[in-house]
Amino acid sequence: MHDMMASINKTDPEIYSLIRKERERLSNGIELIPSENVVSIAVLQAMGSVFTNKYSEGYPHKRYYGGNEFVDSMEDIAIERAKKLFGAEHVNVQPYSGSPANQAVFFALLKLGDTFMGLDLNAGGHLTHGSTVNFSGRQYNCIAYNVDKETELLDYDEIRKQAKEVKPKLIISGLTAYPRKIDFKAFQEICDEVNAYHMSDIAHIAGLCATGVHQNPVPFADVATTTTHKTLRGPRGGMIMCKIEDKFDKNGKKNLAQKIDSAIFPGLQGGPHDHVNAAKAVAFGEALKPGYKDYCRQIVKNAKALAGTLMDKGLELVAGGTDNHLMVIKLVNKGLTGKGKEVQNALDEAGITVNKNTIPYEPGSPFNPSGLRLGTPAVTTRGFKESEMKVIGESIAKIIDGYTDKKTIENVKKDILELCRQFPLYPDFTVLE
Ligand code: DSN
Predict the structure, then answer these.
(1) Which of 83, 89, 374, 428 is most buried, judged by most C-beta within 10 A?
(2) Which pLDDT tens digit goes with each residue over 247-280?
């Protein structure tokens, strides 16, 4: 048995007790936020390692400080594993998270005020894809594309038409709440037709892309960004993958890979988080093992099972279901327009963690939206299969129908606790005990 908490237990009981409470919350509840996961003990250990002590501005074998020989080897391994996993020409593992990764791509490829296109936030884009309250929408000119109002699907002919009118310098493909497959090749073709860079943000579905469970844009997109902590099941962090050659600047002083690297450091960040990069290397190593593909396949099977149960119980889903790891429940037909927050809170009380979310053409507001976003990466790691997803789906439907009823919440909470006891979290590890 390992015990990473033996020391903090004595030296800082205040923080120790909060860590312990968080562990209990995770153990006794169902985690359905699609951007969260449960990392391995090896990933936890790498994150808690002495690499956190080091400064290593620069890139492997070209650092500004001494003492980096082991950091260099570790970062080399992280890069090589990521290249193999995704079929990438060039990889930068230093982004602190997904948002700085995206910001660095803007720095590398656009000038302030340049026009780009990204998916509307309500329809499942991301803040950094051009939201007016984010750097991307404030410092650059974003013309958002949307999903079709009827089907709630991406309409590639419409996006092409819009791109021809807008003439963007960059088009972002990718999602945080779009439940269907994305045709990244179609985005690439549109970008080629209108002379735009193609940046694919695969943060949510990176694991599915790496294993062929979803089309992988990395081999052909100019740039792909990702976080490392979602389906990829690594530490909280980011990564950029790109082509080496810049298709619009073949004879420039820097190629595309060099532009991306210098946008991260020294353009945006200082020293990389070496302990996190070590944990990224560990997670990429785990994802290269055969069992990871089975895990990714099961994520999608579980999502389809959950979506099926919810629809059988009369709930409506954005775009009519899911092809990936997530789904968005539309509360509108239940008379709960703008009530996402209240239903989220009731589910929380019952031990089911989801997040309120906007739906396409949202009639409410981002803080009081009309949707709930659910996903299966974390519960699949925990070992849940289709039969457990049915129990969870039925529980969610009960809460939605009786979200103000304490008795309903109490009864569901008992069922959820019983389910959780059958699937203990970190069973062989006294971490946080
Ligand atoms: N906050 C993340 C998500 O939940 O999708 C995206 O950055």
Answers:
(1) 374
(2) 999 999 999 999 999 999 999 999 999 999 999 9
Which residues of the chain form CATH 3.40.640.10?
46-287
Q: What are phi and psi of 171, to 5 degrees?
A: -120, 130
Q: Write down the pLDDT at residue 432.
A: 47
pTM for the model = 0.96
Q: Which structure tokens are listed for 428?
A: 């062989």
CB 376 within 8 A of CB 34: yes
Question: What's the pLDDT tens digit per position in 45-103?
Answer: 999 999 999 999 999 999 999 999 999 999 999 999 999 999 999 999 999 999 999 99
CATH number of 46-287: 3.40.640.10
CATH dotted code for 295-423: 3.90.1150.10
- Cα of first residue to Cα of last residue in the chain, in angstroms, is 11
Ligand 1 pocket, residues with Cβ under 6 angstroms: 35, 98, 126, 176
187 and 170 Cβ atoms separated by less than 8 Å: no
Nearest alpha carbon, ligand 1 atom 1: 35
- Which is nearest to 86 in space by CA: 275, 239, 234, 272? 239
Q: Whose CA is nearest to atom 2 of ligand 1?
A: 35
* Residue 155 falls in the annotated catalytic set: no
Which amino acid residue places its CA nearest to atom 3 of ligand 1?
A: 35
Q: DSSP string covering 398-431, please?
A: HHHHTTT-HHHHHHHHHHHHHHHHHS-SSTT--T
Residue 330, helix vs strand vs coil: strand
Q: What is the pLDDT of residue 430?
A: 62
